[in-house]
Structures are given as C-alpha cells and as structure tokens.
Write a structure and sequence with these properties.
By secondary structure, this protein is an all-alpha fold. It has helices at residues 2-94, 97-112.
Length: 129
C-alpha cells in the first residue's frame, strides 16, 4: 500500500509540475500576444500620425500659397475696384446723369398717369380697351 501512495504522490507531483509549466507557458503566450497586438496598434497609430502630418504639411503649403500669392493679388484687385468706384462717384457728381434720370422719371410719370396716354401723344395710336 505504501507503494501506491508513493506512486500517487509522484504522479501528483508530476501533474502539478506539468500544470505549473503549462500555466507559465500559457501566461507567456498571452503576454506575447498582448504585446504583439499593442505593437500593431502602435504601428497603426504611427502610420495614421505620419499620414496626418503629411496632410498638415500640404495644408500649410496651400495656406502659404494663399497667403503669399492670392491674398496680395486680391488686395490689389480690391484697391483697383475702390479706385474705380471713387472715379465713378466723381464722374457721377460732375455729370448731369442725375438730372437726366430725374427728367426721365418725370416724363415717364407724365406718360403713364393716364392709361390712354401711355405712348407719346405724337403718335396716332388709339387704345382699344
């Protein structure tokens, strides 16, 4: 009977050793897979970061082009337009256009007050209403 007990004890020690060894290997494998997954995520994050940094560089270049080329040219166009508006305003003040517009409005009002007199009275047109 003592032989069986020794045999059972040795078997239990072997199973316990194998179990501990299996558990240790399992823990190492899980840790290795977790580290590999973290490395993959880190690589993906670095790739995304590099892509975003490239986009930022492109946007900065485009903003520089806008700032250096487009905005000054637009400011020049705006100043030209302002000068043209000023010239037009001066021309309008010196010309008799406003008097002509007033005269036109008076003539228009005179000939449109009466429906029968909508056309110049020099014509021989008679309204047929």
């Amino acid at each position: 009977m003592a032989g069986y007990i020794v045999e059972i004890r040795v078997t239990l020690e072997v199973f316990l050793t194998l179990g501990v060894l299996w558990w240790t290997i399992r823990i190492f494998a899980l840790e290795a897979s977790r580290k590999e997954e973290l490395r993959r995520e880190e690589d993906n994050a670095h790739q995304q970061l590099e892509g975003l940094q490239g986009s930022v560089k492109k946007l900065e270049e485009a903003a520089g082009k806008v700032r250096d080329k487009l905005i000054p040219s637009q400011l020049a166009v705006i100043s030209q337009l302002q000068a043209q508006v000023t010239n037009l305003d001066q021309d309008l003040q010196t010309s008799q256009l406003q008097d002509k517009v007033k005269l036109y409005q008076e003539v228009k009002a005179f000939y449109t007050q009466d429906p029968a007199a909508r056309y110049f009275r020099a014509s021989d047109w008679v309204p047929q209403e």
